[in-house]
């Protein structure tokens, strides 16, 4: 794996020159608009990067963006990868390892997820304080390369506490409704049944989605501090469950995106 990561990293470095990003950003479903705030210096379609998996979803652009955001050099994934697309966990998390090799010191992750907590409404934001991993396989399974990280990485603080606290302060200062909670990661691509929503709430989840945790595990494996935030795009309350479409989810995510962008920009400015 290390050889593949190095080959991809070398290819990218050959095209971005002496540009060294301080932060990596993964943009989730309906949340690619943050790119409009980046002063872009270079962008590459995933398909043009050797060894880089290609996003198969029509609402994920599939571009690696290099530029300046809030005065800091960043690399942003406009479109992420999911297990349900048919990729294995090593492929899904490969971009995180490449971004680390390119020089990032902090990883920022966004996603669209469904609320499990009756106090958290669709359109609200939720800073992820912890997670429950219900994905069927771990991205660290297999031979461990000590150059990438330890065999048994600690996960007692998968999300950076200082960044969480600062994000909540930024939200409060800007009158943004932003909660703190536990994210449950499942495979998808179907949404959950009433019984599944009830179960996920019982085990401690505040929101549920189909991504994020594999990337967070690998970031922790490589010693990268992580900040993650969800836009709550639907409500998984068993007693009031209504059908929801991907179009509605994307629309709600896009409406909430300016609030998410405000928080991310101020966090990155403070690095």
TrEMBL record:
Its EC number is 2.4.2.1. Keywords: Glycosyltransferase, Transferase. InterPro entries: Nucleoside_phosphorylase_d, Nucleoside_phosphorylase_sf, Pur_Nuc_Pase_Ino/Guo-sp, Purine_phosphorylase, Purine_phosphorylase-2_CS. Pathway: Purine metabolism; purine nucleoside salvage. Residues 24-269 form the Nucleoside phosphorylase domain. GO terms for molecular function: purine-nucleoside phosphorylase activity. It holds the Pfam family PNP_UDP_1. CDD domains: PNP-EcPNPII_like. Homotrimer. Belongs to the PNP/MTAP phosphorylase family. The purine nucleoside phosphorylases catalyze the phosphorolytic breakdown of the N-glycosidic bond in the beta-(deoxy)ribonucleoside molecules, with the formation of the corresponding free purine bases and pentose-1-phosphate. This is Purine nucleoside phosphorylase. The lineage of its organism: Bacteria, Pseudomonadati, Bacteroidota, Sphingobacteriia, Sphingobacteriales.
């Amino acid at each position: 794996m290390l050889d593949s990561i190095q080959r991809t990293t070398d290819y990218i470095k050959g095209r971005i020159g002496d540009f060294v990003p301080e932060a990596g950003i993964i943009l989730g479903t309906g949340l690619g608009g943050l790119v409009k705030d980046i002063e872009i210096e270079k962008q590459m379609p995933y398909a043009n990067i050797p060894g880089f998996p290609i996003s198969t979803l029509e609402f994920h652009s599939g571009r690696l963006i290099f530029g300046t955001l809030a005065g800091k050099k960043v690399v942003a994934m406009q479109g992420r990868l999911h297990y349900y697309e048919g990729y294995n966990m090593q492929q899904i998390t490969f971009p995180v390892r490449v971004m680390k090799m390119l020089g990032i010191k902090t990883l920022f992750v966004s996603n669209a997820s469904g609320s499990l907590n009756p106090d958290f409404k669709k359109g609200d934001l939720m800073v992820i304080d912890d997670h429950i991993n219900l994905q069927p396989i771990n991205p660290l399974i297999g031979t461990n390369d000590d150059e990438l990280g330890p065999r048994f990485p600690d996960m007692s603080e998968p999300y950076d506490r200082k960044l969480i606290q600062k994000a909540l302060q930024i939200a409060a200062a800007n009158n943004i409704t932003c909660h703190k909670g536990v994210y449950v990661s499942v495979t998808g691509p179907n949404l959950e049944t009433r019984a599944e929503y009830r179960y996920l709430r019982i085990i401690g989840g505040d929101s549920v989605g189909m991504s994020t945790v594999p990337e967070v595990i690998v970031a922790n494996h490589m010693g990268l501090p992580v900040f993650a935030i969800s836009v709550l795009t639907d409500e998984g309350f068993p007693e009031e469950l209504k059908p929801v479409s991907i179009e509605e989810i994307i629309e709600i995510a896009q409406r909430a995106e300016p609030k998410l962008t405000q928080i991310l920009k101020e966090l990155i400015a403070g690095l």
